[in-house]
Specification:
The protein is an alpha/beta fold. It is built from 14 helices and 13 strands. The protein has helices at about 5-15, 55-65, 85-95, 110-120, 135-140, 155-165, 185-195, 220, 250-260, 260-265, 270-285, 290-310, 330-340, 370-384; strands spanning about 35, 40-45, 100-105, 125-130, 145-150, 170-175, 200-205, 230-235, 245-250, 320-325, 345, 345-350, 360-365. The chain has a seven-stranded mixed beta sheet with strand order 3-9-8-7-6-4-5, with helices on both faces. Helix 8 (about 220) links the parallel strand 7 and strand 8. The chain is globular and about 55 Å long. The structure holds pyridoxal-5'-phosphate.
Length: about 375
């Protein structure tokens, strides 16, 4: 055995012993309320297609029309990958978000990594919520900034760290809706704090976009705070039902990113089909009041019933509803038992969540049939 063989084998064994092994499982209709694995019908509570738009005929049509311009974009944005459709889409995103400018980026992961690394240098201190998404964490890691992670949603802790910092520039970054807990960032207070300390506030609105705001503009709009926040990142892969991501900010910030954001500069531009589908999805999202309302009602009902069954849903107030179980083994057992009973809900384990806080993460969709949610709740009652 080579050194590599024995290392890979030891790593594999360690993951299995700690119930941390992960595997890919082919799932049909993976973004729809009903999915199939090995032919078995499953109520899908694992998709982030919150508004049920991923399979919308208008989006599929737009993608097909876009694809007639070519399957690929051919180069990165700064080389020759910025076609007129992309420029028009960026204007549309800026007007949707009410920002001076916007930038289309390959994915939410790429946006977070690139934006944070591009804004931070040795003279920057980054203040990050401990439960921020991995892409935010990785962006900070890539930069040479000093990082201070504050306890989840703990404003006193954040204020203390800001007070102690002597960095020339301060940047606060937080998810709006925390992806594994379904709770929300205290935005009003964060805006006050960043004003007091002259910090830049960066929001990752991956789970707020499409779902919150009068027209789905996002969580900052829901609270009437959008024009007080310097930079927002959001993805088109969740409620918008497509792929790709945006940065919405001032012209100066966007210009800075165009010249410095490495995940924009060194990665190929999104293909025409995606650009066209995202364009159509913004129109659908803006008009999706009924879907937003349905999602809210179903989420509240599901969370209340889960609590009645004795599950701990933490601080969730959104379409993301965890059932906290603690150990990775328990989470895996629960997910398996649910799948046997016709429910697709994945176990979320460390390092995605802190050690000892493994959980089942349920995500609701506007298009879930009430009867199917009842079926899922019946399965949950069976395993409770
Ligand atoms: C999903 C997610 C991302 C990544 O977005 P993609 O477009 O899927 O790469 C970033 N941040 C948060 C909070 C997310 O949940």
């Amino acid at each position: 055995m080579t050194a590599w063989d024995s290392w890979l084998e030891a790593e594999r064994r360690r993951r299995e012993q700690q119930a941390l092994a992960r595997e890919l499982q082919a799932t049909e209709h993976a973004a729809e309320p009903i999915a199939y694995r090995g032919g078995k019908r499953l109520v899908n509570l694992s998709s982030n297609n919150y508004l049920g738009l991923a399979g919308h005929p208008l989006l599929i049509e737009a993608a097909a029309r876009g694809a007639t311009r070519g399957a690929g974009s051919g180069s990165s944005r700064l080389v020759a990958g910025s076609d007129p459709e992309t420029a028009a889409l960026e204007e549309k995103i800026a007007s949707f978000k009410g920002s001076q400018a916007a930038l289309l980026v390959g994915s939410g992961y790429l946006a977070n990594v690139g934006v944070i690394a591009a804004l931070c240098d040795r003279d920057t201190a980054v203040f990050a919520d401990r439960l921020n998404h991995a892409s935010v964490v990785d962006g900070v890691r890539l930069s040479s900034a000093r990082t201070r992670r504050y306890r989840h949603r703990d404003l006193d802790h954040l204020a203390e760290l800001l007070e102690k910092s002597s960095a020339a520039r301060k940047l606060i970054v937080t998810d709006t809706i925390f992806s594994m807990d379904g709770d929300t960032a205290p935005l009003t207070e964060l805006v006050e704090l960043k004003d007091r300390y002259g910090a830049l506030l960066v929001l990752d609105d991956a789970h707020g976009g499409g779902v919150f705001g009068a027209h789905g503009e996002g969580y900052a709009h829901e609270l009437g705070l959008a024009d007080r926040i310097e930079l927002q990142v959001g993805t088109f892969s969740k409620a918008f039902g497509v792929y790709g991501a945006y940065v919405a900010a001032s012209r100066v910030l966007i210009d800075h990113l165009v010249s410095t954001c490495r995940t924009l500069i060194y990665s190929t531009a999104l293909p025409p089909a995606i650009v066209a589908a995202v364009n159509a999805s913004i129109d659908l999202v803006a008009e999706a009041d009924d879907r937003r309302k349905a999602l809210r009602v179903k989420s509240e009902h599901f969370r209340a019933r889960l609590t009645e069954l004795g599950f701990d849903t933490g601080e969730s107030t959104t379409q993301i509803v965890p059932a906290l179980v603690g150990s990775s083994e328990r989470a895996l057992d629960l997910a398996r038992a649910l799948e046997e009973r016709g429910v697709l809900a994945v176990a979320i384990r460390p390092p995605t969540v802190p050690a000892g806080s493994a959980r089942i993460r349920f995500s609701l969709m506007a298009t879930h049939a009430d009867a199917d949610l009842e079926l899922a709740l019946g399965a949950l009652a069976g395993v409770a």
